[in-house]
Structure formats: structure tokens, C-alpha cells
Amino acid sequence: MTKVSVIIPTMLGREELLRKLLSTVPPEYETIVVDDKDLLLAAKRNKGARQATGEYLLFIDDDNYLESGAIHWMLEKFGKEIGVMGMVACYQDKKMLVADGGSMRSFVTGFTRGRYTNTQIRKMPEAVYDVDEVANAFMVRREVFQDAGGFDEENFPIDLDEADLCKRIKDMGYRIVMNPKAICYHRSITYSPVPDFRRASNAYFLPRNKLNHQRKHLNAISYWMHVIVFLPVHFCIYTTALLWRKKFSLIPPYIRGTWDGLRGRRENKYQPR
After folding, report:
1. Of 28, 106, 142, 145, whose CB is crowded by the most CB atoms within 10 A?
2. Could you say which of 186, 209, 243 is where a domain stops?
């Protein structure tokens, strides 16, 4: 059996990014590129996992590339108690600065806190550390991934698909960790506490999927506490931020995503109106 299967979901027009990533994946690992234009991110990841033969599945988005030895360090530290291990992502244009060090989530409020975001990589701990969720580049033991049922592509076609998978695997009794020695470089804008969206589909899916996530993982009392108390806070913060950033065109899909989340809609395609 192949030790590691590297699963890369990609899109048309990102061929240069893909080539850069592939050039940093050691040839001894199975590489599966999923470029099905009819599928969104979670479905692409599931399709790649079905094709994989590796004991471990490494999911990595095509706007990354790997530091030398990154996969080796993942395998070196992947104990039996670990369900998911994330790579620490540094900015491609600021290679000593952490873009994503994993996140902690308050499940009632729905707010998340990035660990070590914008910290110098040399100030990171040496040992793996626990988080609630990972994103962007992460490894899962294939057996655990299958037992968890893979990504929920119906509720989370893009955005929060990793968060949902991590929650289910954590509930199975496994640790969710980040490995500071396993580094990738992510094509990302510098993180800001002021919310932002890159495109209309993200502005739609994030609020919708947040509500799907809360509904799925909270009991009824906690869910309605979130809707009554914290959803208005989220709504005010995001709409105010979009107004401040002058991204007026993203406010209607954000409102629609919030409304569809309250209604429990699960369409896996974003259709602008």
C-alpha cells in the first residue's frame, strides 16, 4: 500500500499554481489531481479520497506549495491518538510569518480564533499542538476518514467542510493537531480581523454553512441561543465590514446565505440572483 496519497483539488486557470505545488511533492507519494469542473471543493476532495490507495490522505489546496521534508515530518509525528494533522501555512510573500496555524472554535457563539496567526515561524512551539479545526493542508489516516464518512459535501460544499470533518473525528476520540515542523506556503492575503470575502460564492456559503454547522453540532437549545443572541452580532459585523471595505456587491449574497442557512437549504451550487 502507498504510504501517502496527496489529493489536490484544482480549478481551470490555475495550471501554474498546480505545477508549482506538484514540483514540491516527492515522487514516492501517490498524487491525485481532481479538476472536475462540475464539483465544488468538498466533492473534489471526496472524489480524490475514493481513488486513493494510501494509508494516509494529505489534502492540499492548489494555491500552496510544500517546504522540503513537510510530508516526512507529518508521518514522523502522526501517533495513533491523532485523527487529523494540519500543516502550518506561511505566506508565500512573507515566508517567516504564519498565515494559518489552525483554529479554535466557540461552538455556541460561532466565533473562531486563529492560533499563532501572523506570528514569526521561529516563535512557534516545536511540538504538535491541539486545535479544533484545520484548513488548507492537512493529513488524515484513511481508515479514520472513511469511518467518519468523509466530507459532508451536501451541507458544506465549500467553507467549513474541514471544520465539520474535524468536529466529527474529534467526537470519535481523536486529537486534531497542527505540526509546526511541517510547513507549506499559502498564496494568501495578510490576515485581518476585519472580515472579508474574495468572491460572491464565499459571501453566500460562509453564513449559510455556519448555520448548518451550528444546527448539526449543537442541541436545539444551544442552536436557538446562537440564532437569537449571536447571529445578529455576526450579521452586523460582516455587513459593516463589507460596507467599510466598499464591497457593496457582496452584501446581497451574504444576506441570502444567512437567510438560506436559517431555512436549512443545502443546494451545492451558488446561483447569483
Report:
1. 145
2. 186
